[in-house]
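Task: sequence design from structure.
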């Protein structure tokens, strides 16, 4: 899927986004929304739509030295149309390179300030000779629409889990395609199972897309109980969970719990008002329980926003491991109920109920036996299964399994509304 999406030149608006959403529709019954240019969304306005057909620079000898067809990172995203000849020094005012990483092409945008430009390796930049250069950018910046994709998967209740990822980057694999692919397959996985939560998946342009969605859906926002912003999930780095602004919500605790039992390396960091669209979901007027779960953190690895963030940088095994963590998080959210011990005066006799026999052959029998005792002791209606798992120091699934065994023999009952 990432391979199919990689060559497409996406931006915050335009055909590249639509083409990408059409591919996603082969996997999910995604609804595509089109919001017209000029629509007011809180303090912002939906911008003009940008489309690009061709862009190149010819050197004084007439050779195409920079060509958008070869790599769509070569063009400054949202470049306005240009076709004229100019000196090297004038051209250099519109060239972007990474002198510290001379072999890589940087990724640059100019969405909200009219400009044009090309991005190239510093190696190539240094070979450019004096003379007249021909610059051609066949782009359009016109009234149109901002497109985003939304998939709502209903569950038993209207209480909702929100997953969001940006779809506005051109040929960048980890920073974009990893999040898009992971959420697509997570949605497919969740379709197959019974669900108490409803799930909403947003495939939206960064910043303006999240602002637009929030502005148009303010009436639905009270349904959101938990959320994650997904990106940077295919690189070899350890996991990074960035807490919601509130910092102690259930999704914060669940993500941290799953990562702890998933094993190192991982880190948990506090909210900062920078990064991906958690900035909008956690703005003070919404303050939603939405964190961000990535592998390497935003803007910290050398491939970030360069041509090295390509299809060889992301690997199936890392995407798979990231997918497992996301899946586990949904399983903990789905199963995190409150129970009440129906035999709270002294310990019930477990042997008589066959519970020791039931766990005897289990490879985790010691853990499961302890889990039974923990669940019986802390199931007073106040503690959720996650509370118990954390207090006992066991993975959620062990505590959940113990609770299922106790329910089966009539020692435990779910607290309604828990
Ligand atoms: Zn980015």
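Answer:
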């Amino acid at each position: 899927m990432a391979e199919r999406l990689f060559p497409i030149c996406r931006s915050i608006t335009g055909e590249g986004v639509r083409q990408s959403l059409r591919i996603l529709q082969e996997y999910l019954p995604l609804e595509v929304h089109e919001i017209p240019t000029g629509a007011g969304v809180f303090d912002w306005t939906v911008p003009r739509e940008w489309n690009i057909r061709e862009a190149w620079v010819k050197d004084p000898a007439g050779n195409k030295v920079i060509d958008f067809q070869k790599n769509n990172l070569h063009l400054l995203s949202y470049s306005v149309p240009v076709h004229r000849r100019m000196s090297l020094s004038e051209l250099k005012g519109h060239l972007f390179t990474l002198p510290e990483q001379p072999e890589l092409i940087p990724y640059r945008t100019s969405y909200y300030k009219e400009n044009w430009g090309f991005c190239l390796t510093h190696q190539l930049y240094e070979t450019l000779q004096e003379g007249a250069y021909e610059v051609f950018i066949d782009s359009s910046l016109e009234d149109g629409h901002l497109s985003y994709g939304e998939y709502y998967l209903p569950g038993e209740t209207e209480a909702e889990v929100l997953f969001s990822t940006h779809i506005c980057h051109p040929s960048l694999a980890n920073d974009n395609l990893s999040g898009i692919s992971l959420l697509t397959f997570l949605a497919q996985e969740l379709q197959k199972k019974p669900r108490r939560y409803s799930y909403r998946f947003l495939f939206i342009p960064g910043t303006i897309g999240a602002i637009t969605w929030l502005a148009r859906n303010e009436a639905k926002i009270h349904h959101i109980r938990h959320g994650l912003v997904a990106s940077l999930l295919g690189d070899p780095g350890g996991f990074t969970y960035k807490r919601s602004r509130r910092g102690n919500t259930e999704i914060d605790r669940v993500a941290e719990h799953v990562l702890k039992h998933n094993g190192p390396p991982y880190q948990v960091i506090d909210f900062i008002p920078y990064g991906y669209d958690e900035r909008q979901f956690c703005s003070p007027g919404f303050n939603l329980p939405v964190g961000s779960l990535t592998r390497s953190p935003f803007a910290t690895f050398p491939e970030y926003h360069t041509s090295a963030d390509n299809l060889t940088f992301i690997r199936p095994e890392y995407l798979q491991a990231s997918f497992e963590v996301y899946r586990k998080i949904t399983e903990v959210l789905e199963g995190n109920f409150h129970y009440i011990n129906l035999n709270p005066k002294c310990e019930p006799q477990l042997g008589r109920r066959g519970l020791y026999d039931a766990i005897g052959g289990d490879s985790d029998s010691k853990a499961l036996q302890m889990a039974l005792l923990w669940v019986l002791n802390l199931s007073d209606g106040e503690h959720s299964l996650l509370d118990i798992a954390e207090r006992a120091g066991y993975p959620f699934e062990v505590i959940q399994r113990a609770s299922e065994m106790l329910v089966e023999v009539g020692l435990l009952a779910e607290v309604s509304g828990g």
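The chain has three domains: 2-47+145-335, 49-142, 338-414.
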